[in-house]
Amino acid sequence: MASPKKRLQGLVAATITPMTEHGEINFSVIGQYVDYLVEEQGVKNIFVNGTTGEGLSLSISERRQVAEEWVTKGRNKLDQVVIHVGALSLKESQELAKHAAEIGADGIAVIAPFFLKPRNKDALIDFLKEVAAAAPAQPFYYYHIPALTGVQIRAEELLDGIQEKIPSFQGLKFSDTNLLDFGQCVDQNRERQLAFLFGVDEQLLSALVMGATGAVGSFVFRDLSTLWSN
């Protein structure tokens, strides 16, 4: 089973992808962005190329470059850089997963494919398993965001038996308003030391009561860092 240097918990900043006025990625400000998160906000974990970062609107080449820049600029400053590598194409997702491992990312995350959708839990796990196998040493997180993917497979159902099929599985980013599903994820998996990262900013307090071990979002500010002990 994958074992990151430090458990992913607490605040995780969902980073934007900075753009120029001409629609090109503004790589020059990412170093400043890292310093702002660490020095001004006290946040040392980031989630790159996710929804906030508009990863699925970028080309594969752009996603690779963005990931490389965050890993490079965050070296010796950030604790964990998790790269979202989900894509409609399995091969592209595998390519991004391999690349994340090669550049020294600390983990990868994947959403469900949302055009030709998996019809059940087994089909979804099969897809995730193929992506995880492309980077078997990378801690693997499922990015649960049914409002955007349209995949309504409950996270609690997915977690049942997933580590037997994906040994590198470390937890999930839960970006859904179904607190019953989230609470069951936590209650039924307390002994497994998984990361339960909540991703709906407006419901964070409720998620904390239910046992969230961290939060991924764009709400990040220093005062929230006291919610979890590192």
Portion of residues in beta strands equals 15-25%
Largest beta sheet: strand ordering: 1-2-3-4-5-6-7-8
Residues in helices, as a percent range? 25-40%
- Tertiary shape: globular
> Residue-averaged pLDDT, rounded?
92
First-last Cα distance: 22 Å
Number of β-strand runs: 8
Number of helices: 9
> Which structural class matches the secondary elements?
alpha/beta
| Contiguous runs where pLDDT drops below 50 for at least 5 residues | none
The radius of gyration is 16 Å
The main β sheet shows up as: 8 strands, parallel, barrel
Sum this structure up briefly.
The protein is α/β, with parallel strands linked by helices. The protein is 36% helix and 17% strand.
SSE blueprint and pairings:
Elements: E1 10-14, H1 30-40, E2 45-48, H2 60-74, E3 80-84, H3 90-103, E4 107-111, H4 121-133, E5 140-144, H5 146-149, H6 155-159, H7 162-165, E6 169-174, H8 179-187, E7 195-198, H9 204-210, E8 214-217
Parallel strand pairs: 1-2, 1-8, 2-3, 3-4, 4-5, 5-6, 6-7, 7-8
Helix pairs in contact: 2-3, 3-4
